[in-house]
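Weekly modeling sync, notes
Attendees: S.R. (lead), two postdocs, one rotation student

Agenda item 3: backlog of single-chain predictions. S.R. asked that every request posted to the team notebook include the full sequence so nobody has to chase files. The rotation student volunteered to paste the first one in as an example of the format we agreed on. Action items at the bottom.

Example entry:
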Amino acid sequence: QVQLVESGGGLVQPGGSLRLSCAASGSILSIYVMGWYRQAPGKQRELVATIGSGDSTNYADSVKGRFTISRANAKNTMYLQMNSLKPEDTAVYYCNADVALITAPLYTYHYWGQGTQVTVSS
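Predicted structure, as returned to the notebook:
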């Protein structure tokens, strides 16, 4: 019913930048909180940043001042601008969203994207 598709990952040198995108499509009535998470090899998935429908934001301490989350509500799209990347930022980055469906407007459903790999290495 709803698909989240991430893009923009890749290989970048330490100190470099990448911009991730997450596009939502399907039977969407409203999108509430959206977020980016990441999972490094052998580690649990962790929160990177979230953004509410009113553009309130929350960041993990490890990315504050380096990453910026934003969204374009008219396009059902969320972004993550990542600057000053470090090797420890290497992970698969996932987006998620809390969505109300056209067919079920009173309920909120939680969706995940398939992930995009970010590798920071020289």
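Discussion: group reviewed the output briefly. The mean pLDDT is 96.
Action items: rotation student to repeat for the remaining queue; S.R. to check formatting next week.
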